[in-house]
Amino acid sequence: MSEVCVTSDFFDTQKIERMIECRKAQGEFDMKHVVVITGAPGTGKTTVRNYLTEKYGMEKVLTHTTRMKRVGEQDGVDYYFETDETFFRNHFLEHVDYDDKKYGSSLEGLQRAWEDNDWAVIVLDTKGAISYLRKMPAETLVLYLETSDQKKQAQRLAERGDRVELIKKRLASQEAKRDLELPQELHAHAQLLLNDDWEQTKHYLDAWLVKVGWKVAASDFQD
Ligand SMILES: Nc1nc2c(ncn2[C@@H]2O[C@H](COP(=O)(O)OP(=O)(O)O)[C@@H](O)[C@H]2O)c(=O)[nH]1
Ligand SMILES: Nc1ncnc2c1ncn2[C@@H]1O[C@H](COP(=O)(O)OP(=O)(O)O)[C@@H](O)[C@H]1O
After folding, report:
1. Is the residue at 79 inside a domain?
2. What is the role of this chain (predicted)?
């Protein structure tokens, strides 16, 4: 990317406008993107997803699951809740077993999101993130979330209201243990994001988005 297409000076409106024009000329803003948020339970995947939809207007891609609804979750808002019978009526781009339940994301869901918005966001386990990178390398941006202390993750699940026995089962599952580490296949592609302090995480996300081609407006940087 040429020098005028990037700037680290976010307080200079003219430089930002030149950067936007330059990126437009390269067709960067015409591209579809899907931000895949992955990581172990309790690292903040859903919280980050909500920040990207609320602050940036990204389109949330809902996925399907056979797990039970948690308190406060709604069908068609948090997930499409399925039974073992209805689950495979969907056309999945990828699907996995996670902690003895099924989860899957459909191509239709992603395409629907892209009809409304060039930027979509989805929460997946690391296996799903690898599938997305294999199938759509140009469009997929992976964020891998972690915390500096794994005890924090269990605490957060309890604070979220998850039942103690379910937290234990979830954290003991081979998939949750696997996702505590960034898989080799994601090393070169995923952006690591330490989510200890929420204020810092938000700043980090804002900066990362500019780096990966988010269409900033000069006005975003005033005040
Ligand atoms: N591969 C894949 N993973 C999914 C899908 N939907 C959700 N997940 C992942 O399944 C795991 C369990 O999700 P959930 O039961 O909501 O628990 P949470 O991680 O504690 O919020 C998480 O890692 C999600 O990112 C999907 O469609 N495909
Ligand atoms: N940086 C943070 N500091 C403190 N609590 C957080 C932070 N990020 C998320 N949480 C809280 O931790 C809990 C689990 O977060 P969530 O986004 O549901 O995790 P995940 O989807 O990865 O399982 C939620 O109650 C959320 O509000």
Report:
1. yes
2. Essential for recycling GMP and indirectly, cGMP.
